[in-house]
Specification:
Layout: E1 2-9, E2 15-23, E3 37-43, H1 49-56, E4 63-67, H2 74-87, E5 91-95, H3 100-107, E6 113-117, H4 119-128, H5 136-149, E7 153-159, H6 170-189, E8 192-197, E9 200-203
Catalytic activity: adenosylcob(III)inamide + GTP = adenosylcob(III)inamide phosphate + GDP + H(+); adenosylcob(III)inamide + ATP = adenosylcob(III)inamide phosphate + ADP + H(+); adenosylcob(III)inamide phosphate + GTP + H(+) = adenosylcob(III)inamide-GDP + diphosphate
Pathway: Cofactor biosynthesis; adenosylcobalamin biosynthesis; adenosylcobalamin from cob(II)yrinate a,c-diamide: step 5/7; Cofactor biosynthesis; adenosylcobalamin biosynthesis; adenosylcobalamin from cob(II)yrinate a,c-diamide: step 6/7
Enzyme class: transferase
Length: about 200
């Protein structure tokens, strides 16, 4: 695995630096792309959304898996390693905590199939990097523009956080609300939307 660091510009002019680790087979110079298609996959924890997204992503090669999770503690590092093993061969892994819009704009056209997992962690990373909740829609729209500019298929995974109890603190309630509005923006743009329950996909759009 080789790692590089990229600096991405925020709306306010300052930069977001994020580590980008890339692993997997080398990208060929010329590829034949499937028509542009955006698939949005929602679900709760352990609902099967990531497995479903990977199945949807096996349409062409080379395939890129854009991972937004960061190994901030031992438990999270273990989760990331487990997900890496479950993907198996045939995927180029791109570790991109914040700069997925920029990566799609710069590199996305080289992959006929891309899976982004997941937007909820991406949102958390943005907020941890001092992006204000009011700025999030701007980042989401930039992501959607970059995704739509890619000539292949992109499967985007996110968590549905609004089906449980009302969170007991203001920060958690704010995050739930921002995540819900983010999901609405992506769902409105997507060609297909699926909701996963107990491993079963329900097509919403």
């Amino acid at each position: 695995m080789r790692s590089v660091r990229q600096s991405h510009q925020r709306s306010g002019g300052d930069s977001l630096s994020s580590p980008v680790a890339v692993s997997g087979p080398r990208l060929a110079q010329k590829q034949t792309h499937v028509p542009s298609k955006l698939i949005f996959v929602l679900g709760g924890a352990r609902s099967g959304k990531s497995s479903f997204a990977l199945q949807q992503g096996k349409v062409k090669s080379p395939r890129a898996f854009v991972a937004t999770g960061e190994p901030i503690d031992q438990e999270m590092a273990g989760r990331i390693q487990k997900h890496q093993r479950s993907r198996g061969r045939g995927w180029v892994t791109i570790e991109m905590p914040t700069g997925i819009s920029e990566w799609l704009a710069e590199q996305g056209s080289g992959y006929p199939s891309i899976v982004v997992d997941c937007l909820t962690l991406w949102l958390n990373n943005l907020l941890r990097n001092k992006v204000r909740p009011s700025q999030v829609p701007t980042y989401v729209r930039a992501f959607l523009r970059s995704a739509r500019a890619c000539p292949g298929q992109i499967v985007v995974v996110s968590n549905e956080l609004g089906l449980g109890l009302v969170p007991g603190d203001a920060i958690s309630r704010s995050f739930r609300d921002v995540a819900g509005r983010m999901n609405q923006l992506v769902a409105a743009e997507a060609d297909e939307v699926y909701f996963l329950v107990s491993g079963l996909p329900l097509r919403l759009k």
